[in-house]
Amino acid sequence: MSKADHMLSILWLLKSQKRITAKQLAEKLEINIRTVYRYIDALCASGVPIIADSGHNGGYSLLGHFNEAPLVFDLDEQKALIHAAAFAQEAGYPFGEKLSQAVAKLKMYTNEEQLHQINLHEQGLDVILPQADASQVSLLQEVEMAVAQSVTIFMHYQKGYGSVTEARHLDPYGLVCWKSKWYVVGHCHLRKEIRSFRIDRIRKLERAEKTFERPADFSARKFILSGVLPDSDKPDELISVKITGREQALDDLCGHWFLAHALVERSQLEAHFKLEERYILYDLPYFLLTYGGTLRIKEPQLLQNQMIQVTKNLHNYYAAAQLD
Question: Where is each Helix-turn-helix type domain found (predicted)?
């Protein structure tokens, strides 16, 4: 038998009785007792909570209700799950209470040394994201269930920043957390096309007595990104954008989600992008304002003019506010 087979056999023997000695394990598996000790140490290192009792009635046993634990994770796997849970909680994951219970159960079924290491890794990582309020968490739970069960939902949705709402039926295909906001993507019965809706703008939600079939290979993530990233499938319609500046500022610019996909060429002090005109007119000027004087637009003239107009508008707005 291989090492893995022997270790699994030891685990099953431990699960099948309250206490068993190393000698008994060696006899049952027909291996050397020193080999038993090595396999016990390896099982403990992988996260199995094995207790060793000395004395006349001593032996090896499993901690508590380990028989109820279906999986065994090593330390790196446990650390990864704990860290992933921290990100999910901060992002407003809709089943946070159950996630906390799962983390608590994970800690319960580990040995003392690994629990100490897990706590150290947990204390060493913090995630700061905007917290979802209780009402949004409740909506997220309902929408997630509708997505999983392919059930149409009926909602009253607030358009923009006004107070007007529209009643819509939606076949929810998926949930996406994008830039700290949650979106549901699906087929809108009113518009008769696939649309995305912000969860925090849903004012009322009900399950309709109707199911749907989700399109094969549909990706809510790709749908969201297709609406915000430059379209690389139309190279003839893209405009060249060249920006110079400080190396650190260019590093940040080129690594940002909005421009990383449009990067054509990069030197130490210059970055060359290709973008659609609509991004140059409406999005990029405001984005570049956050870099202040660390960057300079080399081309096109269209973007330079837009930056001038945007800054003029801001100046006039605040100048008028001072007069009031």
Answer: 8-60
Here the tokens at position 35 are 């080999």
What are residue 166's DSSP bridge partners?
A: 157
pLDDT tens readout for residues 285-319: 999 999 999 999 999 999 999 999 999 999 999 99
Provide the residue type at 84 as one letter.
A
DSSP 8-state code for residue 266 = E
Q: What is the pLDDT of residues 141-156, one digit of tens each?
A: 999 999 999 999 999 9
Q: What separation in angstroms does the CA of 1 have from each of 4, 12, 30, 32? A: 8, 15, 10, 13
pLDDT of 69 higher than 70:
no
Cβ-proximal residues to 41 (8 Å cutoff; 6+ apart), any chain: none
Which residue type is seen at 105? K
Read off the amino acid at residue 319. Answer: A
Half-sphere exposure of 69 (CA within 13 A, CB side): 23
As to burial, measured by CB atoms within 10 angstroms (0-12 exposed, 13-18 middle, 19+ buried), residue 285 is buried
**Of 212, 213, 204, 214, nearest in space to 152 by CA:** 212
